[in-house]
Every structure is written in structure tokens, then in C-alpha cells.
Design a protein that fits this description.
11 helices; 10 strands; elongated; alpha+beta; five-stranded mixed β-sheet
């Protein structure tokens, strides 16, 4: 028979206990090997240590939250369902002018009797409905500052327990006294600024009205002066030149073989040139008696005729729609178009141009175009006529004062188009008496 191997039961038991202890050590379930009876105690100690550690962490976090709650720069408080304070931070206590302990167990109305009666209703509505009340402005007078009105901005939020039941109100209150004071000063400054702007605008409008009246009178005076000058040229200078020519011709006839007859003949030629130029000048200045000055198209055609005599052929086109204009607007348009045509003659290196008239709702549009050499409209110095005109800058300013505009489209080598816009006479949509002007 084979003999059974030797077994030490007690030894095997100890070996099993040792393996359990080693297993516990491997899994960090105990801190030391003290024997089987101590294992449960060691595990209990570990749990106690962990609990102590968690309590320490929770305490630190609670202190951190409490520090934030007390030092946040807004007022924080908690009311129970009876609207009495059960918690308040230092900032709110200072705002109310009382200590934190003086708040506990008292309502807002107890602390600040001059608060509006509607506040209690608003707070109870939060508890009853669970709906927060935000941005509630309050006029407040605190015990430490009697007679001084302060402005607060309050927010009332429902406070729930773990069972989702409302147990009170969290309140957040901001001091906005300085903000509102600043806003009021800003509002007053804005009102003052608006008043000054209104005053300056009225002054400017009065100035513009007076300036428009002055420009109107100036335009009329210029036209009258042109007619007077044309009359003077005809009645005086023209007559004097004609008499001088007659006298020289008479002298030449009396002494045809006189040594100075050749000089007399040359002088007569010069006088003929002076008389011709004077007549052209009178023609430019003095409107023909038969010309209808209220008809804009007729005036444009007359201008075209005067420029043709100076070597510039003008084609006038019209849309045949009525264009009733106030007198001062019509005078300025004629002056500006004349100025622009002189510019074409002097600067554009072309002998042709177009004047196109159109009606656009309550305005008249006049386009003066040429296919000449053009120029850069961005240059600081625009072309001037050199013919005694008032220049494009002044032309634009005069139109602007009358509610019109002058726009230039040009480029070197691309020709030029100048577009004029001017307002028609008021209620012109009912005008039927004028077909072309």
C-alpha cells in the first residue's frame, strides 16, 4: 500500500490565512499584517480615515463658499416662507445699515419701513408661483442714512429643498444709486446738447434761408446788371464807335491822298472789329425781346445760339415734359449752363457739345456732355472759364443753396458729362401751362 502523504491541518490553516492577508495587502485593504482577528478592525479604521478626510474636504469647501458668500460685492440674503431673514451676508447688512444678527427673524419691512407695500406682495407671489421676480427697482431710505434716497435693484428667486418644494426666497440686491445718478446727469447733458443742437440748427436754417434769399437777389441783380450793361454798350459805346468810324471815313473822303490815309484805313478796320465784338457782347448779354425767359428750353436754345457764334456747335434735346421753375432757380441754371459751355469751348478741345433736358419726378435734370479731352474731377483746381464766369465750385454752391446738385463725370481722354439737378416749382405736378420750361 502506498502511504498517505503527511498533512498538517493546522499548518494548512495558517497558510490559507497568510494568503488572505497577502491578498488583502495586494488590494490595499489593510495597512499592516497583524493577524486574522485584526483584519476587520483595520478595514474599519480605513473607512473611518476616509470619512474623516471627506469631512475635512467638505469643511474646507464650506468655508470657501461661506467666504465667497460674505465677500461678494452684492447683497445676498435668504427669507423663509414667512418672509423673515434666516441668512444675510455682510454686504447686504452694510447696505441696510444694520448688523447681520439684527436681520435674523425680521422682515424687510421691519428693517426698512419706507419700502413700498407692493414688495411683500411680490415676495409672496414668488413663493406661491415659483416664478422669480427680476430687476425690481426700489427707492430705499436706510436707518444709518435717514432722509437720503437710494436706489436698489432686487432679484427674488425661489429656494427649493431636496424634495423640490419651495421653502423660502433667495434674494440678490445691487446698489445702483450712483449708476442712476450718473444716468440722470447723462440724460440732462443729452437734453442740453439736443437743445443746443436744435438752437444751432435753427440758427443755421435761418442763415441758409437768408443766404438763399441773398443769392436769389444777387442772381436777379446780375441779370438786371447784364441787361443794363447791354443797354449801355448799345446806347453809348456802340454809338461812339460808330460815330468814330463815320468821322474817319469822312476824313478819308475829304483827303483821299493824304499821307495818313493808310493809317486811317487801318483804324477803320480796328473800329469795325470793335463794333463787331461789341455787338456780339450785347447779343450775349441782352436777351431778345421775343424770347420767353420763363421757358427753360427756349433759354437753352438761345445759349446754344450765342455759343455757335463763338465756334461751338450745341445740340439741345428735350423730353417735351413741363418743367416749371422758380425764377431764381431758372436764372442760376442758365448761368451755370453758360459757364459749363464756356468751359467746353476753352478746355475740351472740341467744337461740339450736347445739352439734354429731362424731367425726373419733382426735379429737372440737365446733362452737358462733350467728347473732348476730359480732365480729372478729383483735382483740387477745376477748370475755370477765364471769361469772367464764377467757376464750377461757385456753380455747385449756388445750386446747393437752391436744393440742387452738380455732379461731374470725366476722365482724361474720355470726355466730360456734367449733370445738373434742380427742384421744380412746388405743386408743379398740376402745372399744365408750360410744355417745355
Amino acid at each position: 500500500m502506498t502511504a498517505e502523504p503527511f498533512r498538517d491541518v493546522e499548518l494548512e490553516k495558517k497558510l490559507r490565512e497568510a494568503e488572505e492577508i497577502l491578498d488583502a495587502l495586494r488590494n490595499h485593504k489593510v495597512d499592516a499584517v497583524l493577524g486574522t482577528k485584526q483584519v476587520a478592525m483595520l478595514r474599519l479604521k480605513q473607512v473611518e480615515d476616509q470619512l474623516h478626510e471627506q469631512v475635512q474636504i467638505s469643511g474646507d469647501r464650506l468655508k470657501e463658499i461661506e467666504s465667497i458668500y460674505q465677500n461678494v460685492p452684492v447683497g445676498l440674503g435668504v427669507l423663509n416662507k414667512n418672509l423673515k431673514f434666516i441668512r444675510v451676508n455682510d454686504h447686504l447688512a452694510k447696505m441696510n445699515g444694520l448688523s447681520a444678527d439684527e436681520h435674523l427673524g425680521r422682515t424687510m419691512n421691519d428693517l426698512l419701513p419706507k419700502l413700498p407695500d407692493s414688495l411683500e406682495s411680490d415676495l409672496r407671489r414668488v413663493i406661491e408661483t415659483g416664478n422669480p421676480q427680476m430687476n425690481v427697482e426700489l427707492n430705499v431710505e436706510t436707518p444709518d442714512q435717514p432722509g437720503i434716497q437710494r436706489r436698489w435693484l432686487g432679484h427674488w428667486l425661489p429656494l427649493y429643498n431636496r424634495q423640490k418644494r419651495i421653502i423660502g426666497i433667495n434674494m440678490v440686491i445691487e446698489e445702483i444709486t450712483e449708476r442712476r445718478r450718473f444716468e440722470e446727469k447723462l440724460r440732462q447733458l443729452n437734453e442740453t446738447l439736443e437743445e443746443r443742437v436744435t438752437e444751432r440748427t435753427e440758427v443755421l436754417q435761418t442763415y441758409q434761408t437768408n443766404l438763399r434769399a441773398l443769392v436769389s437777389e444777387l442772381n436777379k441783380a446780375e441779370e438786371r446788371e447784364q441787361q443794363r450793361l447791354a443797354g449801355d454798350l448799345h446806347d453809348n459805346l456802340g454809338q461812339i464807335l460808330a460815330v468814330c468810324r463815320m468821322e474817319l471815313e469822312l476824313s478819308q473822303k475829304k483827303a483821299p491822298d493824304h499821307a495818313g490815309s493808310e493809317e486811317i484805313e487801318n483804324t477803320v478796320k480796328l473800329l469795325d472789329e470793335a463794333i463787331r465784338y461789341t455787338r456780339e457782347l450785347m447779343s450775349d448779354l441782352k436777351l431778345p425781346a421775343e424770347l420767353n425767359k420763363e421757358n427753360l428750353v427756349a433759354m437753352m436754345k438761345w445759349l446754344a445760339g450765342t455759343m455757335t457764334k463763338r465756334g461751338l456747335k450745341i445740340r439741345v434735346e428735350d423730353d417735351n415734359k413741363p418743367k416749371p421753375l422758380n425764377e431764381e432757380v431758372r436764372i442760376v441754371l442758365v448761368q451755370v449752363v453758360r459757364e459749363l459751355l464756356f468751359n467746353v469751348r476753352k478746355h475740351a478741345d472740341t467744337d461740339e457739345a450736347q445739352v439734354i433736358l429731362k424731367r425726373q419726378e419733382d426735379a429737372v435734370q440737365i446733362a452737358i456732355t462733350d467728347e473732348g479731352k476730359g480732365f480729372d474731377p478729383g483735382e483740387k483746381t477745376l477748370p475755370q472759364t477765364g471769361e469772367g464766369g464764377f467757376g464750377l465750385f461757385n456753380a455747385r454752391e449756388r445750386l446747393n443753396l437752391l436744393g440742387g446738385t452738380l455732379d461731374i463725370d470725366s476722365a482724361p481722354g474720355k470726355g466730360t458729362t456734367v449733370m445738373l439737378h434742380a427742384p421744380l416749382r412746388e405743386n408743379s405736378e398740376n402745372a399744365t401751362g408750360e410744355s417745355n420750361g
